[in-house]
Amino acid sequence: MVLDAITDVPGVKVGHAEDFDAMTGVTVITTESGAVGGIDIRGTAAGTRQVDSLSPLHVAGVVHAVTLSGGSAFGLAASGGVMKYLEEKDVGIDVFYVKVPIVPSAIIFDLGIGDPMIRPDEAMGYRAAARAKGALNSIEQGSVGVGAGATVGKLNGTAFAMKGGVGTASESFKPKNSTGDGDEIVVGVLVVVNAFGDIIDPKSGKILAGARDPENPDCLINTSKRIREGEDRSMPSGQNTTLAVIATNAVLNKQGATKLAQLAQTSLGRVISPFHSTFDGDVVIALSLGGGRQEVGINTLGMLSEVALFRAVEKAIILADGRGIIPSYSDLNGKK
Length: 336
Known about the structure:
By secondary structure, this protein is an alpha+beta fold. It has a single domain (6-332), classed as 4-Layer Sandwich (L-amino peptidase D-ALA esterase/amidase). It is 20% helix and 28% strand. Helix 1 (78-88) packs across helix 2 (122-130) and helix 4 (254-268) crosses helix 5 (298-318). The model has no long low-confidence stretch (mean pLDDT 92).
């Protein structure tokens, strides 16, 4: 690990843009030289754009950026700004007349906090892409970018939820047949936690953030326990989403990247409970920037991503800032 961020993977950059008054924003992960991608969608109401390019059957062999946006379906407009920025940099698939950047995108629902009439647009997407920075540059985490309006623990509605956010981390190792420093395998992750369920510390089993008790708002309830006891109330679907991007310098084809995304989804279920509920729209995208490096077993990459995801989710929660609108982990634990 260098910065313990997804940008520890060579060729990956991250940029944020947000409107803190409206509590919404955009995060862009750029891979300007191109990355092989795969996707796993298990959410009941995912909101996406151009994710068909990640299919093993799609003619597009690489992607050049991933856009994660707030604003619900309105926020998908932000990816147009990312495409504009990349086109200006002459990045994209050459179709003779122009270069077309391939930018899969996914959104979270954050309209229940801040101003629901202000959503990420093309201009915000452009700003996020223009701010993207890579190795040796620290990446802001917490309630920034797409995490500006993220919330968690919504069994009792947003009024009794807690603040979510963005977190990033990385893991690395040297294969046994390594011959030099350039052989190190790196797996980096970035996650935005906007879940219906509670966020769990995988070591202690303690709830870090989640649904609060309406009768005692400084105390957390156990959402999974309440649902096991029959408290599965009706509420609108699609208002909760955890999005994650996994990147690695290991060589993967589209099928391998898709399997890595599947493994990552399963790992997230150990720190978010309940996960993949009927109220969630969860999406994981995996990217390989292999660059000629040796192949590594998918299971190894999956376990590295699991460890990194646990740490990234924890960072997203601990570094979150509710800006006086909704309590954060720090607010309830006296860290401020």
